[in-house]
Write a structure and sequence with these properties.
With 290 residues, the chain is an alpha/beta fold. The chain has eleven helices and twelve strands.
């Protein structure tokens, strides 16, 4: 079951699929001109400032292909990085280095971009109780590392997928018939089939909040305030009275996040942490030993 897999088990699956996609029936560029027994060194050069992410992942990628590689990290995940810095050095068979090169770079460039943007958001929240959440707006088959990059950047991972939390969103509520009916049916389901899963409910207007408060105590753990203005959130929090965790979502960005934090809401969720992040410039360079 996917829920029971460890991070490393999920990562190994990701690496295996990425290698199959990239290598296919062989790295013919390398095989054609480099002897299989030849060993070499390479370093990860940083070419753009930001927050570094993916060093641990890179080490696991190299070890997946060649367990006996020698990997020396000069920086760790979450460190500030600057152009000209070196993140790590790896010593292995050259076939291994070249086979892993693009996968390592793709992962680290993407992860570092996400970690850097996440860090910018968390800096805006300093001094407030509000914490930053990610969302499921991720790249298919790359969610594991995108969410890991959010964590490295200082954010908190929301649910990983559809399997580890019940989120009653607008479509669930509309299809079910009402917010009260959706809550009661979800709670019955949890009690009988999935007792460890928590229930969150999305609300679109103040009236929805009143309904959740009326029927959700002891059933719902968090109320999402979707596309509420900061003023509307303040009104909502007066109604909720700390009976539920609260999450603001929709339209939150670097320019307005502090106005949401000023309301006292527990969490803000920002899909843009992942889907608006720009990959950072890194390169893996051969080290020529004289």
């Amino acid at each position: 079951m996917f829920l029971m897999q460890t991070f490393d088990e999920r990562l190994n699956h990701l690496i295996k699929e990425a290698l199959a996609e990239d290598v296919g029936d062989g790295d013919h560029s390398t095989v054609s001109c480099i002897p299989a027994a030849q060993k070499g060194n390479a370093v990860l050069r940083i070419k753009q400032a930001g927050i570094l992410a993916g060093v641990d992942v890179a080490q696991k990628i190299f070890s997946f292909v060649e367990e006996e590689n020698i990997f020396h990290a000069f920086k760790k995940d979450g460190d500030a990085m600057h152009s000209g810095d070196t993140a790590f050095e790896v010593k292995a068979h050259i076939h291994t280095i070249l086979k892993c090169e693009r996968i390592v770079l793709n992962c680290m460039q993407r992860m570092s971009g996400i970690a850097t943007l996440t860090h910018a958001y968390t800096e805006k929240l300093k001094g407030y109780k509000t914490r930053l959440l990610d969302t499921r707006k991720t790249t298919p088959n790359f969610r594991l590392l995108e969410k890991e990059a959010v964590r490295i950047g200082g954010g908190i991972n929301h649910r990983f997928g559809l399997f580890d939390m019940i989120m009653l969103k607008d479509n669930h509520i509309d299809y079910c018939g009402s917010v009260e009916r959706a809550i009661n049916k979800a709670f019955q389901y949890v009690q009988s089939k999935q007792p460890y899963i928590k229930i969150e409910v999305e609300t679109r207007r103040i009236d929805d909040i009143k309904k959740v408060c009326a029927v959700g105590k002891g059933k719902v753990f968090r109320i999402m305030l979707d596309n509420f203005t900061p003023q509307q959130i303040k009104e909502a929090l007066e109604i909720i009275q700390n009976d539920f965790e609260t999450e603001a979502s929709g339209g939150i960005n670097l320019d307005n996040i502090q106005s949401y934090a000023e309301t006292g809401v527990d969490y803000v969720s920002v899909g843009g942490l992942i889907h608006q992040a720009q990959s950072l410039d890194l390169s893996l360079k051969a080290v020529m030993i004289k």
